[in-house]
Amino acid sequence: RKEVEQDPGPFNVPEGATVAFNCTYSNSASQSFFWYRQDCRKEPKLLMSVYSSGNEDGRFTAQLNRASQYISLLIRDSKLSDSATYLCVVHGGGDKLIFGTGTRLQVFP
Amino acid sequence: NADVMQNPRHLVRRRGQEARLRCSPMKGHSHVYWYRQLPEEGLKFMVYLQKENIIDESGMPKERFSAEFPKEGPSILRIQQVVRGDSAAYFCASSPTGTGYEQYFGPGTRLTVT
Question: Which member of A52, A86, A98, B74 has the lowest number of beta carbons within 10 Å of its beta carbon?
Fold first, then answer.
């Protein structure tokens, strides 16, 4: 079983749609969780951290369910510029980040 | 420059040659991480270094790969006798702390082995 699993997609949605991505992780001792965004052939960039209480940043909402070991990202009112690959990332303890393979989002006009 | 710098951005090597990838961390950061991203896969941790020390190399292949972060100058990821399977994007990230939480990524080096 992979340490971090994501549906690869692609998710094709029209502008203005709401889309949700889920991610599961295998290590119940993991403490920190993040969503990164990666544009085609670019470096990953931190989108937001994920807290147990959930957190929101504009159109983006992240949730963590420790009991089920899954993390979600909700994007409301999708924009064309949201098209990218979204990486679920778990802090693996010690010093390394563990990346999922990513979920690809394509927003069309 | 405030950003993490990597060079070269693109590197082409023939099988059997050596590849040297460089990473200059953000100003004030003394922790460097290297990741590899194979086509259609997620980033995989390779090695974590502080100045002059390798802290965690659990993700490094046992042979042909080495990394250093000297007191002066950039961090270097070195791949000897490259093979086609080494073709990938190599990203480095730097952090002001050693906890691994705040990592800022460079633009990556795309290595192609022909």
Answer: A52
Contact present, A95 and B46 (Cβ < 8 Å): no
CA distance A50 to chain B (A): 12
CA distance B98 to B49: 9
Distance in angstroms (rounded) separating the CA atoms of residues B35 and A17: 33
Q: With beta carbons less than 8 A apart as the criterion, state whether B104 and B94 touch.
A: yes
- Give chain B positions within 8 Å (CB) of A41: 89, 110
DSSP labels, chain A:
--SEEE----EEEETT--EEEEEEES-TT---EEEEEE-TTS-EEEEEEE-TT-EEETTEEEEEETTTTEEEEEE-S--GGG-EEEEEEEE-STT-EEE---EEEEEE-
pLDDT of A70-109, one tens digit each? 999 999 999 999 999 999 999 876 678 899 999 999 999 9
Contact A97 B56 (CB under 8 A): no
Torsion angle, alpha carbons of B96, A72, A102, B63, to 10:
50
Q: Which residues of chain A lie closer than 8 angstroms to B92, CB-CB? A: none
pLDDT tens-place values along chain B, 114 residues long? 469 999 999 999 999 999 999 999 999 888 999 999 998 788 999 999 998 899 999 999 999 999 999 999 999 999 999 999 999 999 999 988 766 677 899 999 999 999
